[in-house]
Amino acid sequence: MFGQLIISGISIGATYALMALAMVIIYKTSEVLNFAQGDMAMLSAFVAYFILEDKGLGFALAFPLAMAFAFALGAVLEFGFLRRAKEPTVLGLIIITLGLQMILYGLASWRWGSDQKNFPFPVSDFEVHQILPDVVISNLNLVTLGWALLLMLLLFAFFRYTKVGVAMKATQQNHTVARIMGIRVNRILMLTWGISSMVGASAAFLIASTDTLDPNLMWNPQLKGFSAAVLGGMTSLPGAVAGGFILGVLENLFGGYVSVEFKSVVAFAVIVLILCVRPSGLFARHYVRKV
Amino acid sequence: MDMKRDYYEDIRLLDSGAQVFWLIALLAALAALPFFASSYLIYTVNLMAINVIVALGLNLLVGYTGQISLGHAGFFAIGSYITLVLMTKLGLPFPVALVAGGLVSAVFGFILGLPALRLEGPYLAIATLGFGLTITQILGRIEYFGGHMGLQAPPLSVFGIGIASDAGRYALIMPLCVIMAWGLRNLVKSKVGRAFVAIRDSDIAAQCIGVNLTYYKTLAFAVSAFYTGIAGGLMAFVLGFINPHTFNIMISILFLAMVVVGGLGSILGSIMGAVLISWLQIELSRITELPLLGPALEQISQSVFTISGLPNIQYVVFGLIMVGIILFEPLGLYGIWIRTKLYWRTWPF
After folding, report:
1. Which of A61, A66, A214, A278 is most buried by its number of CB atoms within 10 A?
2. Which residues in B lie closer than 8 A to residue A272 (C-beta atoms)?
3. How is chain B split into domains, by residue range?
4. Which residues of A touch B63 (CB under 8 A)?
C-alpha cells in the first residue's frame, strides 16, 4: 500500500510540477501571478479535443497544433492585455489575469457547454506494469512522468545554453539593465508567456486524459500548481518541480492513511504552513524588501 | 475642492448639506420602493443589497487595508451554513442565528488574518484562494451540513413576525444594508479606519508611527468576514436553498470584481460596483430576451458556439469589464464619478 501510494503520488505530482513550472516561468520574468494559467491550459486541451474529435485528425497532428495554439494564446494575452497596463499594481495585475481567466472560461463553456467529455489519449490508464510485489504503474503514469522529466530537462537546457534563455534570465533579474544590454524585454516577456502556456497545456492534456474534459478541469490543478510553486519558492524552477512531487506524494499519503475526504485540504494547509514558516519556500533564497 | 480645514471636519460623517439632502432622498426612495415595485424587482434589489454588504466588507479589506482576498466566497458560505444550521438543528431564532453566523465567519476571518501577517501581495491571494476553495469542499463532505445536497432554508420569522414575501425580506435586508454601510463609514472615519489606510499605504511606515500591525490586520480580516458572513446568512433566505456549489470560486472573483469595478477605498464605489455587477449578473442570464442583440447572439451561438452554453457569456462580459477597468479606469466607477463632479464644479475651466 505504501509503495503504491508513493508511486501514484509521484505521477500525480508530475502534473502539479508542470503547472507549477508554468506559473514560475511567468512569475519569475514578469512578477505576474497568472490566475489564467489553468484556463489557458484548459482551452488548449479543448482545442486538442476539437482537432481530434471534430476534425478527425490523428494525435501526431493534433498535439503539435494544440501546442502551437497554446503558444499563440499565451503570446496574444501578454501582448494584448498585460502589456497595455500602465504602471499596474500587484492587485491590478491579479485582477487582469482573473479577468482573462473569466473570459477564457466563458468562451470555453460557451463553445463546448459544461457537460463532461472523454478526452481521447493514445496511452491507456488501465494497462499496468507490476514493478514491485503489489506496486503497479500504468502506462499513462509512465508517460506523465517521462514527459514531465523530459520537459524539465529541456527547460533547464533552454535557460542554460540558448541565447534566448539567457536573455530571459537577464530579464528576470533586471528589466532596465536587460534593455540596456540590447534585449527586447517586451518580446522576451511575450515569449515567456508563450512557453509557459505550452507547459501548462501539456499538463492539461495529461490531466484531461486521466479525468474527463470540462471547463472546470483546471481549477484544482491550478491551486495545486500554486501550492507546489509556493513550496518551491515561487522563483526557482527546480524548486517548483520538487514542490510538485512533494505535494503529490504528501497528498496521496494523507488520502491513504488519514482521510480521503479531506485530501483537498492538504494543498491549502501546505500553502499556509510553508508561507508562515518559510515564506520564501524550501528552495529559494530569502529576499528582503527594500523600503 | 473638498479641502479639510480642521480635524472635526475630517471626521464628520457627511461632508455637506447637499450630501445630507441626497442621502435623505435616497433613503426615502428605498423606503417607498416596495409599495410600487413588482415582486421580481424587489427580489433583484434584495440580491443587490446583499452584494452591497459583501462589497462593503471586502472593500474594507482590499481597498482600505490593502490586503487581497480571493476567499470571500468561503466567509459567505460559513455565514450561510452557520445561520441555517443553528436555526434548523438547534432551533435558535433568526436574529441570533444571523449574528452568530456573522461572528463565526469573523472568527474564521481572524484565523485567516494570522497567516496574512506574514504574507503580502500575490502570496496572500494564493492563500485566500486556497481558503475559499477548501471551505466549500469541506462543507460538501460533511453530512451534518447537508453534504452535496445542501440545505433548505426554514420559514423565516423575526421577533414573531413571519416573513414570506420578497417585500418582507426587503424590509429586513435593506435596513440592515443601510446600517452596515453607515457603520462602515463610521469605522473608516475613525482612528481604526486611519490605521487601516496607513497599513495600506505602507505597513512598515505604519508600524513606525505605532500602528499595531497584528491587531489591525486581523481586525480588518475579522470585520470584513463579519460583513460577508451576515450577507451570507441573508442570502440563504433570498435563495431559499444553498449547496456548496452556490459558493464556488467564481463568486469570490465576482466579489473582488465588484470592489475593483466600483472603486477601491470608497464606500460609494462599493455600492455602485455591487449594484452594477449584480444587475449585469441577473440581466445577462436572460440575454436572449433582449431585442436585436438576443437573436444575433443566438445566431452566433448556433453557427460558432453552442446554444446551451450561451448563458456563460456573462463570464466573458465580466472578464472584459475587469480587464477594461484596470486598463482604462483604475479608479473604477468612483473615479468616473469624481471626474464628472470635478468637471461640472470647475466649468468652464
Report:
1. A66
2. 115, 127, 130
3. 38-283
4. none
Q: B302 and chain A: CB distance < 8 Å anywhere?
A: no
Taking CB atoms and an 8 Å cutoff, what residues of chain A touch B325? 95
* Bridge partners for A135 per DSSP: A132
**A–B CB contacts, 8 A cutoff, strictly below:** 151
Q: Where are the domains of chain A?
A: 2-217
**Interchain CB distance below 8 Å, B130 and A226:** yes
Q: Is A84 in CB contact (< 8 Å) with chain B?
A: yes
CA distance B134 to chain A (A): 6
Question: Contact, A143 vs A123, CB < 8 A?
Answer: yes
CA distance A186 to A121: 36
Neighbours of B343 (CB within 10 A): 10
**Whether residue B330 has a cis bond before it, omega within 30° of 0:** no
Q: Do B319 and A27 touch (CB under 8 A)?
A: no
Q: How far is it, in rounded angstroms, from Cα A283 to Cα A277?
A: 13
Amino acid at the residue A282: L
Q: Alpha helices, DSSP H only, in chain A? A: 2-30, 37-49, 59-77, 90-112, 139-161, 163-173, 175-180, 185-210, 219-232, 237-257, 265-277
What pairing do the DSSP bridges indicate for beta strands B161-163 and B156-158?
antiparallel
Pull the grid cell for residue B336.
Answer: 468616473
Minimum CA–CA partner of B298 in chain A? A110
Written as one letter, the residue type at B126 is I
- Residues of chain A with Cβ-Cβ distance to B250 below 8 Å are 102, 105
pLDDT tens by residue, chain A, 291 residues: 788 888 888 888 999 999 999 998 888 888 888 899 999 999 999 888 888 877 777 778 888 898 999 999 999 999 988 888 887 888 888 889 999 999 999 888 888 877 777 777 777 666 777 777 777 777 888 888 888 889 888 988 998 899 988 898 888 888 888 889 889 988 999 999 999 999 999 999 888 888 778 888 888 888 889 888 888 877 788 888 888 999 999 888 888 888 777 777 787 787 777 777 777 777 766 555 555
Residue position matching grid coordinates 453534504:
B147
What 3-state DSSP class applies to B252?
helix
C-alpha–C-alpha distance, residues A42 and B127, integer Å: 23
Give the Cα separation of B274 and B254 in Å (integer). 9
The per-residue b/e assignment along B242-270, b for 16 or more CB within 10 angstroms, e otherwise, is bbbebbbbbbbbbbbbbbbbbbbbbbebb
Burial annotation B185-223 (CB, 10 A radius, 16+ → b, else e): bebbeeebbbbbebbbeebeebeeeebeeeebbbbbbbb
